[in-house]
């Protein structure tokens, strides 16, 4: 009698479990959790983080690596770029393996790559005329970077000294990748490859990531769906400047600004989880 009761209990649990699965199927592993920010009560200036899941098709996705140079005029920035480059490399390799188009954009170093397959690939793409830019407002940044943003006291080089010559060597470049620091070239590449989602990683969040001709502001205005990988970026911010917070918090404030006004963000862990399919 006891064994029969146990069997009936097991059957009941299995039946309920199957019914629940039928009502609430497991979420697809192809869905990427994108974080944005909304002002729930208009005019309150209180912004809440919200996460929305969207399907990610690797074959319709590109990853831009922005200004990950070999050297930088600010020693603190150069050190952090080295750390980021080593953290990026596994993400880049997996993204490439899954079919995401990798675009290397180390600005002002194109002569170094003039004979490489990745640069030649880009130059072979037919130029396309971008659309009229969308009229998106451009609110001021939440940090003061007017001093160049170096957080190292008595830094040896003056601001904006051009010391870079190539991309950080910790980042791999494959023959099927593309290299460009030109927004119109990159826009043409996205459209010719059928890309509808553009991921951004690199530096610096408040400067090049936003302001380059291939940056989030310009690509968003051209109607490209941009996503920032928020743990693979760094800002140029000196804590002695307003709002007088740590360098890390300054970077977070810029990321929040991007989420409010320009593009959602994602973590590299969530991206890799989707690419791994688990």
Q: Which terms would index this structure?
A:
278 residues, 8 strands, alpha/beta, 35% helix, disordered N terminus, two-stranded antiparallel ribbon, six-stranded parallel beta sheet, Rossmann fold
The domain tally reads 1
* CATH H level, superfamily name: Isochorismatase-like
**The CATH C-level class name:** Alpha Beta
Question: How big is the Rg?
Answer: 22 Å
Work out the helix count.
8
Amount of helix: 25-40%
Summarize the structure.
By secondary structure, the chain is α/β, with parallel strands linked by helices. The protein has eight helices and eight strands.
Please give a structural write-up.
This protein has a single domain, classed as Isochorismatase-like (Rossmann fold), CATH 3.40.50.850. About 35% of the residues lie in helices and about 15% in strands. It has about 280 residues and is an alpha/beta fold. The longest helix is centred in the N-terminal third of the chain and has 23 residues, at about 75-95. Strands 5-4-3-6-7-8 form a six-stranded parallel β-sheet. A two-stranded antiparallel sheet has the order 1-2. The chain contains eight helices and eight strands, in the order H-E-E-E-H-E-H-E-H-E-H-H-E-H-E-H. The radius of gyration is 22 Å and the shape is globular. The model is unreliable at about 1-5 and about 10-30 (pLDDT under 50). Helix 2 (about 75-95) runs parallel beside helix 8.
């Amino acid at each position: 009698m006891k064994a029969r009761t146990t069997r009936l209990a097991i059957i009941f649990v299995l039946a309920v479990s199957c019914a629940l699965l039928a009502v609430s199927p497991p979420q697809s592993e192809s869905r990427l959790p994108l974080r944005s920010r909304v002002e729930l009560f208009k005019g309150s200036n209180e912004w809440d983080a919200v996460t929305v899941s969207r399907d990610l098709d690797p074959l319709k996705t590109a990853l831009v690596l922005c200004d990950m140079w070999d050297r930088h005029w600010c020693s603190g920035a150069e050190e952090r770029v080295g750390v980021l480059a080593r953290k990026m490399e596994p993400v880049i390799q997996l993204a490439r393996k899954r079919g995401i188009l990798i675009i290397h954009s180390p600005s002002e170093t194109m002569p170094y790559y003039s004979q490489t397959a990745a640069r030649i690939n880009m130059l072979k793409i037919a130029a396309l005329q971008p659309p009229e830019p969308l009229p998106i407002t451009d609110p001021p940044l939440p940090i003061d970077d007017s001093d160049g943003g170096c957080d190292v006291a008595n830094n040896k080089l003056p601001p904006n000294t051009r010391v870079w010559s190539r991309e950080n060597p910790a980042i791999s470049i494959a023959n099927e990748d593309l290299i460009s620091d030109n927004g119109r070239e990159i826009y043409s590449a996205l459209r010719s490859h059928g890309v509808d989602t553009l991921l951004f990683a690199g530096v610096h969040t408040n400067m090049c990531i936003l302001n380059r001709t291939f940056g989030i502001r310009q690509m968003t205005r051209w109607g490209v769906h941009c996503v920032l990988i928020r743990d693979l970026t760094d800002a140029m911010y000196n804590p002695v400047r307003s709002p007088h917070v740590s360098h890390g918090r300054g970077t977070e404030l810029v990321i929040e600004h991007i989420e409010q006004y320009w593009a959602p963000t994602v973590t590299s862990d969530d991206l890799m989880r989707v690419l791994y399919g688990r």
